[in-house]
Amino acid sequence: MEKKQLQSENTDSTGGTTTQQLVTISPTSFSVNHPLPADRQRFFLSLTEGIFGLDEEVKEEKLQILSVSCTIKDLVPYLCAFIRNTIDMNKGNPDLILFTNSIRMVDNLINNEHLNLTPVLNDLFPAVISCILTRKVSRNCYENHWPLRDFSISLIKTICEKYNNPADNIKNRVIHIYYKPLKDCKIYPLTTLYGAIKGLGSLGEEVIKIFVLPHINNLGKVLFEKPFSSRRLSEANQYAMEVKQVKQAIVNVTAPVLLKMKDANDGKSSYSKKFGYLGKCLYAEIKKLESTNIKK
After folding, report:
1. Please, are residues 47 and 65 in contact by the beta-carbon 8 Å criterion?
2. For position 227, what pLDDT does the model report?
3. Nearest residue to 263 via CA among 285, 286, 289, 296
């Protein structure tokens, strides 16, 4: 069967459009045990081309098929390999819409009650984790890529809840992946730290206590000790935006846990001493949560 290519139109700096080759679709090229018959290859292509096309109505229709149909079981290995290949092949020149479409495919497959995704998790996991921890998931740093990272984090949480078992203990594997950037937070980009913090935060209070709280001091140093003056204006603005997002992620993830631990009762000064640069904002958030709880 002839290979087909997905393409994406993007606006360039002059206001025109440029066409970028995104990924080659060829089900027969995937490493699966059984080649698809010609009619199933055509169906596969209609799904993937529809999801990555420009017609929003068609896109929603094809995604709905992934979410509810019981007739796509034979296509699952090809679809998951396609998702992984699409993300892997475009990391060097990331396209936010392309990555978002890929992650929406994962979401719909996970929600399909007729499917068991256990055999294909080795394709899905690296793809989704990439959209959480990779430095860039969009070509333009000012594109709002944070919701894609958050959505991907929620998918990993769902996979951990739905497919975790004592034999492979997916949750522990995920914790290890998220924790690695926090251990050496000085060498990782802020976008990666954002994904790691919010990823660990999605896995429960005990995970936050063990893997996030001990690193708040070092994270504060990473956020606030790098000089802004040595950066070009555009770089400084980007860095300031990333600092804001990571700071808010730390506060949102850890403040509710610290409130339950009652650590804020010893006062703002000791809190600042314990958590460094982030101590004051954590203390303020905890007091805000306390006030909200009292009103309730």
Report:
1. yes
2. 59
3. 286
